[in-house]
């Protein structure tokens, strides 16, 4: 592999799922639900496959889905997008993120992002030969919510910055960025003429009444923001890989220029099914969000009973757990040994940091699993003593 990709190896999610499967362990590592999405969504896609929606969809996506995404963001966030020029369908959010970075970051350009950070960001910045500038999220002293130091962010964003990546709701910390936090990001982007790339794949999965605010809704941001989302988390169909990028036409067109040679187009039948679900399955999505909030509390209680220090998730479907109260100090070692000793797989959080030492004492557990699975995992962890 090319030099700039050396060191990336196998993704931690693939590795932990492989180890969990080999050992027959409960997999709270890779973030995917163990129940299906809405029945009508699955049947809609199956019917369309049988009815012959089996050839290439248009590269930018089926217009039905692009129109549905535009309508959905219009209704929920007040954002206006022309489906023809400002919405582009990708193979999951992953391809949307990759195409956006490859389309807009020149070699040597700096990209500011918040760590712990989702693994694909660093890889695509490296592919683009950009320079990663992480700003570390840390648990605040009063409520354990992960947040950043405004001065650190202000120091990181400079005229050398080409792009800032904002993931909210955030994987792995569960932080939902507040309007005030976003306002600072927005101001720094405007002042330094920086493009924002947002990863909003968990946009529907927020808890305790906390609202997701897209960065693009802040003053002066719609014209400089590419927003990425996907159907995988919203409808519990992570294997479908239907995602989308929205933003101003010139930026979306840059994404299109690159993406047409990465994947050309995304799955066709699933696009049509997702288009219908965005409007038709809103009740299902709300019920799923409420169910996940209860699962968060269920797993948090189980992890606390097992002796972990448990973080606070306002959104997404992960809990950060501090392993120091258990007498451990290396999450990578503990995560691998838990698979065999407890039959439970988690993800060592240090992989989400530029400097592994920042996250050495943390492991991430996914709670998007059936209640009985969460209970069994908690019981196994507790029995370790
Ligand atoms: N961004 C984040 C923060 C994620 O957690 C994930 C999925 N785990 C993705 C992007 C990738 O989304 P998709 O499966 O739609 O490619
Ligand atoms: N986003 C999922 C997670 O954080 C994993 C996706 C993947 O395996 N690439 O666990």
TrEMBL record:
Any single GO CC term annotated in Swiss-Prot or TrEMBL for this entry: cytoplasm
Entry keyword annotation includes Cell cycle: no
Short name of any one Pfam family annotated for the protein: Aminotran_1_2
CC cofactor: pyridoxal 5'-phosphate
Alphabetized UniProt keyword annotations: Aminotransferase, Pyridoxal phosphate, Transferase
Residue span(s) of domain Aminotransferase class I/classII large: 26-381
Record GO terms (molecular function): kynurenine-oxoglutarate transaminase activity; pyridoxal phosphate binding
UniProt-listed CDD domains: AAT_like
Source organism superkingdom: Bacteria
Family designation: Belongs to the class-I pyridoxal-phosphate-dependent aminotransferase family.
Listed name of the protein: Pyridoxal phosphate-dependent aminotransferase
Originating organism: Thermobifida halotolerans
